[in-house]
From TrEMBL:
The chain crosses the membrane at residues 47-68, 88-112, 133-157, 270-290, 310-331, 367-389, 395-416, 436-459, 465-487. It comes from Penicillium rubens (strain ATCC 28089 / DSM 1075 / NRRL 1951 / Wisconsin 54-1255) (Penicillium chrysogenum). It is found in: Membrane. This is Pc22g16590 protein. Pfam families: AA_permease_2.
Length: 515
């Protein structure tokens, strides 16, 4: 690999000393490589303010994951597929599988922190002859996947709200246009809130309604530090690659907070662990309390009926259902942030139509307003499919999840075929020989799942009941190929400085770090 041959080179440059490193033997001689240097090494300049601590990033990431709410949203479907056993243990299997896949991706994120995520990794490690095309396809798979998954989560809000209405008024018949109207209202409200989460960051704090998986949905607010020193390295163990370079140290209002949170920062993929620990106990309790499985499966909103059977109280069910709807809505705002920043990062490398227009950061709001608006417009148009066919809408969502997982698997497959030692520089998270297990498992698993999800739901197959996943995947790939023909020549990818990247990863472990 032409770029990789300079891995061992270390450039001569001035080291930035951290005046706030403290005193004592541990602080002596400590230094940090600024985030600006890391971004410049990857061909970009810093445009975002570092505003996330470790805990606030956990809340941000878990607000998107929200495993327990996701499990409730498809509980009725899982019951229909295989009964209570599938509804419960499928969550455990899914967590284990995604843990392996994202662990391999986390290693790449620790080596190449970037807002671009998967396409950025592919561009860096792919063969020179194919890197532009491979990165372009991966980038669009990631963007389209995130946009469509966000549409799926948006649809949960009207389903929960209208399902509650049907629970209170059994004669009320939910029409598809009802769902679309509430869907549009959800887009409007959540996109306004998501303007870089101004509502929680304007005063220097970061609050996350999605941090706690407890039914009470505790709000965690972490004061942001006033220090201006950027971290030497981003905590790849806590957040995904899209936010891996947006952390800065945090000061907490409790004594010895570093001692309390220290073990947390040593965990791998802690967001998945929180998701598992909140989803499984909740499902287990509700399954034990369930009295009539057929009623749950046939309900307009199975989660509402399940809560009613578990509590036996209409008032409690209404209160919990309203809370569940609020949580569904609260999980959308961070997804708009991710959708906007992913598209902005790709536009920065000229991978989108009108890159000069979309490569823009709003000076007042300090976030990519134009790409975020583009993602909301896409969601509004995409929602029209629900008016035509709910089956097609859901099939496309399934295809979107496949696209996302493909974008996770592609860089890992390239890593295995090209050689980990050749492609990866020194990095904070080094999986060693276990990295091969993760990198091999990811593409193999995605291949198997990609085939299985294209099977028909039932036999005989009709136009109304067919599985649209296969034609949708083909259609999406054709759209990406059309984009490549029309605008692919403009896509150049980042300009990597391997020497500076290695210097960043060789900085001492006692230098300034996140949190």
């Amino acid at each position: 690999m032409e770029q990789a041959k300079s891995h061992s080179e270390v450039v001569d440059r001035e080291v930035v000393y951290d005046s706030n490193a403290g005193s004592g033997p541990e602080a002596a001689g400590s230094f940090s490589i600024s985030d600006d240097d890391i971004l410049r090494a990857q061909g970009h300049k810093a445009v975002f303010k570092r505003s996330f601590s470790i805990v606030s990033s956990l809340g941000f990431a878990f607000n998107i994951t929200n495993a327990w709410t996701g499990a409730l949203s498809n509980f009725g479907q899982n019951l229909r597929y295989g009964g209570p056993q599938v509804a419960l243990f499928s969550v455990v299997v899914a967590c284990f599988v995604q843990w392996i896949i994202t662990l391999g991706l986390s290693e790449l994120a620790s080596a190449f922190p970037s807002s671009g995520g998967q396409y950025h990794f592919v561009y860096i490690i792919a063969p020179k002859k194919h890197k532009r095309f491979a990165a372009f396809v991966t980038g669009w798979m990631s963007i389209l996947g995130w946009w469509m998954v966000t549409c799926s989560d948006l649809s949960l809000v009207p389903k929960a709200a209208l399902g509650l209405g049907q629970f209170l008024h059994p004669d009320f018949e939910i029409k598809q246009w009802h769902v679309y109207c509430v869907y549009l209202a959800s887009i409007a409200v959540t996109s306004l809130i998501s303007s870089d989460l101004v509502w929680v960051q304007v005063d220097g704090t970061m609050a996350s309604p999605g941090f706690s998986g407890l039914p009470t949905r505790c709000i965690v607010s972490v004061p942001a530090t006033e220090r201006s020193i950027s971290p030497k390295k981003c905590d790849h163990r806590v957040v995904d690659s899209h936010r891996s370079c947006q952390l800065r140290p945090a000061s907490f209002s409790i004594p010895n907070s570093s001692w309390l949170l220290g073990p947390l920062t040593k965990l791998r993929n802690v967001t998945l662990a929180i998701g598992l620990c909140t989803a499984v106990p909740l499902l287990a309790v509700l399954i034990v309390a369930m009295k009539d499985m057929d009623e749950v499966m046939n309900a307009g909103m199975p989660a509402v009926e399940l809560l009613y059977q578990a509590t036996g109280s209409t008032r409690v069910t209404v209160a919990l259902s309203v809370l569940l709807t609020i949580v569904y809505a609260a999980g959308i705002s961070p997804q708009w942030v991710t959708c906007g920043r992913l598209a902005w990062a790709f536009a920065r490398d000229r991978g989108t139509p009108f890159p000069d227009f979309f490569d823009n950061i709003d000076e007042r709001l300090q976030f990519p307003l134009r790409t975020t608006i583009a993602s909301t417009v896409f969601a509004a148009i995409y929602g029209l499919i629900y008016l035509a066919s709910t089956t097609a809408f859901n099939s496309i969502i399934t295809s979107a999840v496949t696209l996302l997982n493909l974008s996770y698997a592609i860089p890992q497959a390239i890593l295995v075929t090209r050689g980990r030692a050749q492609c990866l520089p020194k990095r904070p998270l080094d999986l060693g020989r276990w990295g091969y297990i993760c990198n091999i498992f990811a593409p193999l698993w995605i291949t198997v799942v990609g085939v299985v999800i294209c099977f028909p739901y039932s036999l005989p197959v009709t136009v109304g009941s067919m599985n649209w996943s296969a034609p949708v995947l083909v259609g999406l790939f054709l759209i990406i190929l059309i984009f490549w023909v029309l605008i692919g020549d403009e896509f150049k990818g980042p300009d990597i400085d391997w020497g500076m990247l290695n210097l960043k990863n060789e900085a001492p472990s006692d230098a300034s770090t996140c949190g």
